[in-house]
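FORM 12-B: Structure-to-Sequence Request
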């Protein structure tokens, strides 16, 4: 979003306020939703059209206001706002509902807005939401490296393309602290910056993005994708680039303490464990590389692995094992997670002796592999024994007009570079098929 104001939408005007106006415009008003945004902020850009479209629905009953966070740091800090975008909801001067930040979905905003209004008013507003269909040549589900590359190639071929994602662009790369093996860069690149540059390149070319949305339904045979319950994307071709999600251990306490002592993202959460004791569970590339990153913050790191040696690349292993703050427990598995005060208590079983012991740590990070994101696809595509989508060498899946690229595809190696290759191949083949 730019720092220009006001933003006009139909008969309503979305006002932008500064710190000095906060008391009058928010605390002395009735119902207000306040958007703290920044410039050069991809999540803010993703939020803007949702926020503006919802203002046309709710604007007669709830005021929609904006604050440019970079120029109103005093107000942001006073309210404890440290990221953009952040939405705060007020009712008669008091904050209410749940604060929303990052990749904010339309459904999350509506949930908070509806809570401010009586049921009859909510029903009236809902009745004004009219479903509509938007046609494209190609729809790409997912915006990791494979999807972004396909979007770039298709855009350069002047093919009308949209990328749809339930999160923000970048995939796993955006959550990787450093990428050291991407061609063209002498020094390791921050993952978030690499993914940002990829998405901006595709966006600048002209591909459309619908991100941080709820994908309500996917019909691969009709080539229809319903997002946010009311917009149907209709395409001639669909590329599935949905990637993977972290596996769970499925032991007692894991789900209960997810996000509250147990994490699956070092880039997101390692910074909260400065001078604390942390445990990492896993022994593959992700576990070892992310563990090394966590040592930048933690005072002590215990790595727990079920096998007698790591499966990660040798260079990463050597670097981790040489760190004096790292202890490794091979041939051990967690059996439960509990909490005692501020500490996570992890019950571990020695796989050689069968004995159980408990370790007390401040936080736990779990990296035990990934699973393909195929639940939205309705079981229509042929998959391998591990749930990955089978394709031919041109990226065709088993349903006509459907392609699969990136980590969700059945293949031997899953790297940024192989995802990019998949996206390139799919886009070139689609271009040729649409030209015929």
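FORM 12-B RESPONSE
SEQUENCE OUT:
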């Amino acid at each position: 979003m730019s720092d220009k104001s006001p933003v006009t939408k139909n008969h309503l005007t979305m006002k932008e306020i500064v710190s000095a106006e906060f008391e009058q415009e928010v605390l002395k008003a009735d119902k207000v939703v306040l958007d703290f945004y920044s410039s050069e902020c991809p999540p803010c850009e993703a939020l803007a059209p949702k926020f503006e479209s919802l203002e046309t629905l709710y604007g007669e009953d709830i005021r929609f206001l904006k604050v440019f966070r970079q120029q109103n740091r005093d107000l942001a800090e006073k309210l404890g706002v440290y990221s953009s975008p952040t939405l705060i909801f007020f009712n008669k001067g008091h904050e209410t509902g749940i604060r929303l930040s990052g990749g904010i979905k339309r459904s999350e905003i509506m949930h908070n807005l509806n809570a401010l209004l009586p049921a009859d008013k909510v029903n009236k507003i809902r009745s004004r939401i009219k479903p509509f269909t938007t046609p494209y040549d190609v729809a790409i589900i997912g915006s990791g490296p494979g999807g972004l590359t396909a979007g770039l190639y298709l855009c350069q071929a002047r093919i009308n393309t949209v990328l749809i994602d339930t999160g923000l662009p970048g995939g796993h790369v955006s959550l990787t602290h450093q990428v050291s093996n991407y061609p063209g860069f002498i020094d390791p690149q921050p993952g978030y910056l690499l993914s940002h540059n990829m998405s901006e390149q595709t966006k600048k070319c002209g591909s459309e993005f619908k991100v941080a949305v709820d994908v309500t339904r996917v019909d691969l045979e009709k080539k229809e994708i319903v997002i946010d319950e009311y917009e149907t994307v209709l395409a001639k071709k669909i590329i599935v680039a949905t990637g993977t999600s972290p596996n769970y251990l499925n032991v007692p306490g894991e789900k209960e303490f997810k996000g509250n002592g147990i994490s699956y993202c070092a880039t997101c959460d390692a910074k909260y464990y400065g001078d604390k004791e942390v445990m990492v569970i896993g022994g593959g590339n992700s576990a070892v590389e992310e563990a090394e990153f966590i040592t930048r913050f933690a005072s002590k790191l215990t790595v727990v692995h079920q096998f007698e040696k790591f499966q990660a690349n040798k260079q990463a292993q050597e670097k981790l094992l040489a760190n004096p703050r790292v202890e490794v427990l091979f041939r051990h598995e967690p059996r439960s997670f509990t909490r005692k005060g501020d500490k996570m208590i992890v019950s571990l079983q020695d796989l050689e002796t069968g004995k159980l012991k408990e370790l007390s740590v401040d936080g736990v990070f779990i990296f035990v592999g990934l699973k393909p994101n195929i639940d939205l696809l309705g079981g229509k595509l042929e998959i391998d024994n591990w749930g990955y989508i089978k394709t031919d060498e041109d990226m065709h899946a088993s349903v006509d007009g459907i392609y699969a690229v990136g980590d969700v595809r059945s293949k031997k190696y899953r790297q940024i570079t192989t995802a990019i290759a998949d996206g390139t191949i799919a886009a070139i083949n689609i271009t040729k098929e649409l030209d015929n």
